Amino acid sequence: VTPSRAPSPPKPRRRRAPAPFLALAAAAWALGSRPAEAREPVPFDTVLDRVERHAVVVVVRFRKDVEADAHGTDRADPDSTPEVFRRWRMSLRVPGFVVRDRRTVLVSDLFLPRGSVASVEVVGKGRDPVPARLSAFLPHCGATVVETASDLAAEPVPFPETVAVTARTPLFVGSVGEGLRGDEVWAESLGSARRRAFVGRGFSYGTPERASAGLSGSRMSRTADLVVREDGLPLGFRFGASVDLEESVWTGPEILEDLRRAFPFSGLEERAAATRRSDLLVPVRLTYRVASDDDGGSVLPFAYAGLSDDAEPDDHAVHYGVAVAPDRVVVPASIPDAWVRRIESVAVEDAEGGAHRGTFEGRLRGLGAFVVRVEPALATSLPPRDEARTSAPPGPENAFLVHRVAFRAGARRDRVDMNRSLGEARGHGDRRYLASEEAVPAGAFLLDLDGEVLGFACDLLPEDVDAEVPGSARPTGARGSRGVVAALFAERGGPAALAAGLDRRVLPAQAEEARRLPWLGVEHEGLDRRVAEALGVSGPTLDGARGRIVTLVYPSSPASRAGLREDDVLLTARRTGGSGAGAPPVDLRDGDAPTFASDGGDVPRLWRPRLDGIVRLLDSWGEGAPYEVAYVRDGAVRTVPLVVERAPRDWSSARRARDDAVGVTVREVTYEVRAALRMAGDAPGVVVSRVDEGSPAARARLQPNEILREADGRVLTSPDDFAAALAAARAAGRPSVRVVVLRLNRSRFVDLDLVVAPGSLGSPAKGD
Amino acid sequence: MRRRGPVALAALLGLVAGAVGRPPSAPAGAEEKVALDFPSVIETAKARVFPALVFLRPVQEDLSGGEKRRVEAFGSGVVVSPDGLVVTNHHVAENARQIHCVLHTRRRVEATVVGLDRETDLALLRLSLAPGERIPHAELAPTDALEEGQFVMALGAPYGFERSISLGIVSNARRHLGELEGHAFNNWIQTDAAINPGNSGGPLVDTDGAVVGINTLVIPSANNLGFAIPVEVVRRVADRLLRDGRVRRARTGLTLRPLVDYLQNTVFPGEKGAIVDDVAPGSPAETAGVRKGDRLLSVAGRETNARYREDLPDIRWTLADLPPGRPSPLVVERDGHRLDLALAAEDCLPCDGDGFEAPRWDATFQSVTEERVPDLAFFRPSGVYVLGVRFPGNAAEAGLREGDIVLSVDRKPVEDLAGLRTAYEASVASDRPKKVVLLEVLREGRKKLVALDYAHDRDGER
């Protein structure tokens, strides 16, 4: 059945007669009324007349949404409607209807970023455009209110107080749309519209590539249709392409009632400001330990919220969480395991700027969100939820607010947008999730129109990939997630229930002790066929295919105590006790590590990461496990019994101190660094591990891997000494600290400026 | 920067020689404001210096590619005495096995090296003239009191285009180019007169036709950033080269820093003295009791004032001129107190030494010295390192790399080049069935074993 269209010439607008009647007959049939019951053709013009009398076209023009970019929440998506229209210098034309007075027009929700709207005007029948603005949205009806600056020619729709409609009542919908010859008024039977509207409606659960495609209704062109009885009586509106007659057709009284409670767009800014003033959404700053290759996967996952993909691993990230209780903050951000382990400290700041210490408690099971315990407690939080107040998720077409917070250019940016619920949809794990008209990005908070936090949107982490295989990095974080889901406190049983669902399997390896690796205590190199031959170990090393030649034995290491020496060729290792005792020996045949160890940054180091093949093997056996190593010395294969021991602190677990103002991170000189830099066992100093570009440290030509031996005449033996020297100089009001720097065999001294121009370095340099 | 690539332009030379024409003459005094009469200035310079200009074509022996290669380089020089002494750059004359010279008269003469000084990149040559023969020479300017903006001309053979002259001004009369790479003993004249490879060793001439500098460096990627060694340094070095064949420098172990050092962000109050940046462990300065951070006020009775970096070269000369082995008075200020110390400097032996070519191994070696390869010397203060690896070659195939420090050959420790030569010769002479040596090297501070199979004789492939 072809929908009937009544094309009209642009000016003057005139309908052509015959077609509607034909179409009407078809439409009546399509409505499902019994075809046997012959009826008189209804004068279709009545319907079209009614539509034409109230319909207008709302024209929206666009500009570059600079605001979105500044907020960091919506980088102007080149494929977004405003951007496409702006690029093509097109205006968006949507149908609207005049209601209540001659200055109020209702259009279907447009979900346009406010910053992108350059101008709005309303074009009535044969009249000049009237300037207008998008003023408010309706809480329930799925419509946006457009207010014009002057009276329109079109009349407001006169809705009857009450009207009885049954399933048999022949209803029509009509509106104005763009045709070949300009705006055309059209109408058709509601029944045919119902059938067609099924097409294209549905939900997608997002893809890893585009998580924001999430759990939301597919975007359809939204129209506003006037619902008219066959005799021309206007009954209500249908907004968008909704299906359900019960839920989607709004009657006149409902609309007028909703109009009285319309939420002004200007209220969104106030809402953002109010939230910001409260402690409801608090910044949670995670500081990460400097990554090293030892941690496995030092490259930041691409979609990790809060950090750009090229951020230095030495960095931190600021997320925002909601205080569900005075001492608990839920943060909707998904962090891969490796990064959770690397969390060094968590700091929470309240609205007054007060600092609170945070503790990472765990992730929420199945959700890309985590819980932080806060000390001391925050002054305000979500009110304790009594069950009576627990509101259901916003019902279909109910408006709610999406509050997004970003940390951008050193400052917090709050932004509130309206969104509309499509109701619940079945999703992952057969659970039901909130579906929204507009996609809600992970990390956003959902508020009702009164500003109460309903929940948040986050990644969904399917629990089946949570099962961790020891020693293997599982797909985590954004890569393992399945789109965006709104976790609603109500649905999940409130904050208390959320906290009960804590997944504490992966926690920050906060204690440095916990991060210490096992060691054998040797530096070793690989062999090849010719070297094996020249050494006379071709046989035991299988022509150099296995075996590592010892090039250095660290004093007081297990290897040194066991009597291993330089030039011993290690062949195999075999566990001699415990659960794996019967297993065959493992060949030691690590490929050569990269010449320069790198910790994920671009700074080459003279020392190698500790986690080589041997350490990995020992790590899998666990501390205390007895094992033996077979090696060749003087042409004879020997074995030596050993026990897996924990190494002293190394580069990646080294104590460190960072000074943001000076722009330098130093670490203690651990045993392997000491050996690589040929430092005596008791030589003082700390190693520069990072120098920020443009910082006072960089201006003083300090470079990574240099040794700082003294600061202001005080010998440095640990990073704490360095921090203390800086603190002392600051306390004494000195403008700089003089440090003695050692680079290979040359030493010099430099002055590190402590006085920083306000604002120039106060904000984090990267990552936000 | 040190080595100019040889430019093979021999075919062009004859052509170019004819192309050097007279400058177009302009009416004299056409502009009253112009104090200089360009045509006459250029004529003067030409008349005075052109006859003393020498085009040098040294045949250098180069080991950097892993084999001994003879390379013909281009350079310039200037005759400074009627009996045929020529000043040029160290990097033109170093490793030269033969130096062919072409005089202004296009007469070809051989030259011999009188002395080389790597620290200032200067060399003194003597032309092999007939006994008693006199040739035109250029005058060195009496002082290097140059001023920025003054007109200067660079004479030489850029890219082998002999007898070329280019005009410019002094961009900066005292440019400090840092301490490394033998730049410690002089400041530089920066000029925008075009200087190109081949100009090296040629004179920078003022409007009186006196030599004010020796063109030495150019920043290739920049526009007209050329650098010349000031004439005072040239005179000082040339005198010593003539007298001793080398420039003796005493070693004190002091590293100095100016009072105002924006590069390292330190500023010390006052005008007097220079700051001791570092005292090398075990050096004469340490023995004398100098400490890092002291303010060095005078040495052997001469004040050592370095407010800026440009003042440092003079002090370094003062230190280098200390008599070796005998105590010299040294005054430092420490914590506001004046201390009189006595410093007995050491004689610093020249570190120039021939490398060693191991043709069957397809590699060349050089000895490790603090001056030559400070980064390697950190890991092993003395010893032998791989200067170059021929490609393709046995060493390259075995994985030997440039900069590897050789610790042992076939498990026998190698301490110096002689030791390596012995080991090499033994390996070549031996009648072992497998032509393989096991080298133990230090690469980036880490020990590594390399089995070098030299059975393949690539000499026949050359």
Give your account of this protein's structure.
The complex is a heterodimer of chains A (768) and B (462). Chain A is built from 18 helices and 44 strands. Chain A is an alpha+beta fold and 768 residues long. In chain A, the strands form 9 sheets. In chain A, strands 38, 39, 40, 41, 42, 43 and 44 form a 7-stranded antiparallel β-sheet that branches. In chain A, β7 and β8 (182-189) form a beta hairpin. The two termini of chain A are 55 Å apart. In chain B, the strands form 6 sheets. In chain B, strands 24, 25, 26, 27, 28, 29 and 30 form a 7-stranded antiparallel β-sheet that branches. Chain B has 462 residues and is of the alpha+beta class. Helices cover 17% and strands 36% of the residues of chain B. Chain A binds chain B through residues 523, 525, 527-528, 530-531, 533-535, 549, 551-552, 566, 595-596, 606, 676, 678, 696, 699-701, 736, 738, 740, 744-753, and chain B through 255, 257, 263-267, 277-278, 292-293, 370, 374-375, 377-379, 398, 434, 436-438, 443-451, 453.
